[in-house]
Amino acid sequence: QVQLVESGGGLVQPGGSLRLSCAASGFTFSIYTMGWYRQAPGKQRELVAYTTDGGRTNYANSVRGRFTITRDNAKNMAFLQMNSLKPEDTSVYYCNAYRAVNPTSASDYWGQGTQVTVSS
User: Fold this and answer.
1) For residue 101, what pLDDT is reported?
2) Average pLDDT over the chain, rounded to whole?
3) Of 29, 32, 8, residue with least CA distance to 94
4) Using an 8 Å Cβ cutoff, are 106 and 96 in contact?
5) In which band, very low, low, confident or very high, does the pLDDT at 96 lie, cut at 50, 70 and 90?
6) Dist CA 34 CA 49 (whole Å)
7) Residue 47: closest CA among 56, 58, 55
8) % of the chain exceeding 70 in pLDDT
9) Around 52, how many Cα atoms within 13 Å sit in the side-chain half-sphere?
């Protein structure tokens, strides 16, 4: 049973920080690309950041310099450190695991999401 369980969301003031965690189980974590996505009401789900099995990272322009994605393969966990939070960061944040199995098939797993609200 594949599981991705997010935690760490909550209410924070503008300029504050939160650290999201994603606990993974049921698959070989170390060979998957791990990503964080977010989706606000009425908007499309967007990629926030990802980190590959080889350690490459990328960030959405809106969060670059403020957010940091990391992973701990020994613990099967991924993290998103969010600093200098803005009200526009308010969203449900989702953990994602992705791997292309072959040219016509991929594994794509999602967590249930955790709410982040940035408000004064």
Assistant:
1) 87
2) 97
3) 8
4) no
5) very high
6) 9
7) 58
8) 100
9) 6
**Which residue type sits at 114?**
T
Tokens 């449900």 belong to residue: 92
For residues 18-26, give the mean pLDDT: 98
DSSP, collapsed to helix, strand or coil, labels residue 2 as: coil
Distance CA 21, CA 2 (A): 16
Phi, psi of 83 (to 5 degrees): -115, 165
Q: What is the residue type of 38?
A: R
Q: Which residue has the tokens 């974590």?
A: 29
DSSP assignments along 74-108, one per residue: GGTEEEEEE-S--GGG-EEEEEEEEEEEETTEEEE
Residue type, 99: R
Cα–Cα distance, 97 to 52 (Å, whole number): 10
